[in-house]
Each structure stands twice: as C-alpha cells, then as structure tokens.
Design a protein that fits this description.
Elements: E1 10-20, E2 24-42, E3 47-52, H1 55-58, H2 65-76, E4 84-90, H3 100-115, H4 122-133, H5 137-144, E5 147-152, E6 157-162, E7 169-174, H6 181-186, H7 194-212, H8 219-222, H9 229-232, H10 237-242, E8 251-256, E9 263-267, H11 273-284, E10 288-293, E11 299-300
Parallel strand pairs: 3-4
Antiparallel strand pairs: 1-2, 1-11, 2-4, 2-5, 5-6, 7-9, 7-10, 8-9
Helix pairs in contact: 2-3, 3-4, 3-5, 4-5
Length: 309
C-alpha cells in the first residue's frame, strides 16, 4: 500500500478479530470473515457516510477513530492533511469484543500511508496500529489474517501466522449490550496463582499446535482459560451460559471473543448450524448469531493484498 503516486482512490477490507482466544491473553488473535470495508478518495473537504452496524457512531466525523488516526499519523509524519470522502460498510459490531477498534486503527494508518505517501511497509503499519491499540493481538490478526501469535517489544511487533483450516466454521454469539475494553480490563487481578499461570501456558501451547495441525479435537481443552475469562464472567454472563455446551452438538471449542461480551464458538465440519443455534437459544435466550469462517486478513479490493509481508 506504499508508493501511491497519484493519490488514487483506495478500497480496503479489514476483518473482525477475536483476540485472547481462550488462554492466549494479549498474544493470540483469529481473523473472521466479517468485515469493515472502507472506500476513500481525495475530496475538497472531509465527508463520511456509513452503513451496517453502529452507523450512529461510524457515520460521525467528530471523534471518528478512522479519521482521527488518519489525521494524527499524517501530522506525526509531517504530511499535509489531505481531505477525504470516506464510505464505510461495517459488519463488525462495536464494543462487542470483535476487534472493531483494531480494524479502525489499521484503516486510519493505511489511509494515511496511502494518501500521505509515507511509504510504510506491512510491518510498519502493524507496528504503528499496535502502538496505538496498546497490544498487538487484534491488530496483527486483522492485518495478516488467520490464526496469529504476536509479541511486542519497544521497537517492533513480532508475528507468526497460519490459516488453520479455512473450512472450519465459526459462530459468533453477540448479546444486546456491549462492554468497554477498559471496563473489562479493570476486572482483572494484578497477580495470579502459579497453578493458573501453568494451566494457561500449557493450553496456549496446545492451542497453537491445534491450529498448526488442524486438530479440532484438541480445542475444547486448548481454549480453556484461567487468566481473564473467570474474572470477566460477571460482565459477560453469556460466557457462563455457553461454556457448558462445549463438546456438544459439534461445538469443538468456546471462548470469550476478545474482552467480551461476545462469545466465539468453533464448530466441527459436520455440525448442524440449526442444531447449534437451537442449543444456544435454549441456554442463552434471544441473541444475535453470526456464522462465518477464518479470514485471510486485510486486503485492498482494487489491487494487491494489504496484508502481504
């Protein structure tokens, strides 16, 4: 996405992500086939239109995370603020643990890189968005796609990503009320028992192996967590209702999506979507359910892959 010479129009598609993924707190993310689509062109003044989820927030120029990030990156890089006409089609529910802020931050950084002709490579875009997000798990998964493990130090973000099995189906269960990430983080303790830390190290290692070897049979155990999910259940009651049905009706594994309150379920190949939906409604009542798959990550619809290393 670097090297734009004529400030050409750009159209980006950035996937929703589920971070933490059970035991992989602030380290693992999974890209889902639910997207924020951003189309932008140079204009005489800033204009913004939005469709899809949360248009009351996404359609506002004031306080818009994409626009604010775009302007701040340009200012930080000493580039002029090129006015944009932006059109958003948003499939990612805000405040639901689905990586909406990571997608918006990456969109803002990518637009600044394109229209400001900054010349950041893929790693630079991930690093800048991760710095703004505060942790790399959602950002890396959104940009690179698939199952992504990431770590951040003072100068760089290190990532490793693989697709898992693209045929695996994901069901995202979304409650009515959202949860701010800051509130979800405030629920966590300052320290943990040694046994809980060991529990999570074991299961995080198993989770990586399960995706690398495409072992659905490992997920029920591999997605268990003791570091964040137990402490967030009071604010994410949907999780407690759904965890007991893991391993039934073709549900291979269940975890809180990001910081919640949505819940992610990975389904076996032969699972009946209708049967799973019926079971979810039986234990959780009326909720929104979205069935999708693992995404390849961010890309430019008009041209080359945005997430290409």
């Amino acid at each position: 996405m670097s090297g734009a010479s004529h400030l050409s129009n750009i159209r980006l598609q950035l996937p929703a992500t589920s971070a933490n993924l059970g035991p992989g707190f602030d380290a693992i993310g999974l890209a889902m086939g639910i997207y924020l689509t951003v189309e932008a062109r140079q204009g005489s003044e800033f204009k913004l239109t939005a469709t899809g989820w949360n248009v009351d927030v996404c359609g506002r120029l004031e306080g818009n995370l994409i626009v604010d990030t775009y302007l701040d990156v340009l200012k930080q890089s000493g580039r002029p603020a090129v006015p944009l006409e932006i059109s958003l089609q948003n499939e990612i529910p805000l405040g639901m643990g689905c990586g909406s802020s990571a997608a918006a931050l990456l969109a803002g950084v990518a637009l600044a890189n394109h229209f400001g002709e900054i010349g950041m490579d893929s790693a630079g875009i991930v690093r800048e968005a991760s710095r703004r997000e505060g942790h790399p798990d959602n950002v890396a998964a959104c940009w690179l796609g698939g199952f992504t493990a990431s770590a951040q130090n003072q100068s760089e973000v290190l990532t490793a990503t693989f697709t898992g099995n693209p045929s695996w189906r994901i069901m995202l269960v979304v409650p009515e009320a959202g949860l701010a990430t800051s509130k979800a983080r405030a629920l966590l303790p300052e320290s943990y028992a040694k046994a809980d830390a060991i529990h999570n190290v074991q299961r995080t290692a198993l989770l990586v192996a399960a995706f690398a070897q495409r072992r659905l049979d490992l997920l029920r155990t591999a997605m268990e967590d003791r570091l964040h999910q137990p402490y967030r259940q009071q604010a994410c009651p949907l999780l407690a209702k759904l965890l007991p049905i893991s391993g039934t009706h073709g549900i291979a594994g269940i975890a809180l999506s990001g910081a919640g309150p949505s819940v992610l379920m990975i389904l076996e190949k032969d699972a009946s979507i209708q049967a799973v939906e019926a079971q979810v409604r039986a234990v959780a009542g009326p909720v929104e359910m979205m069935v999708t798959s693992i995404s390849r990550g961010a890309h430019e619809l008009s041209g080359g892959a945005a997430g290409e290393p």
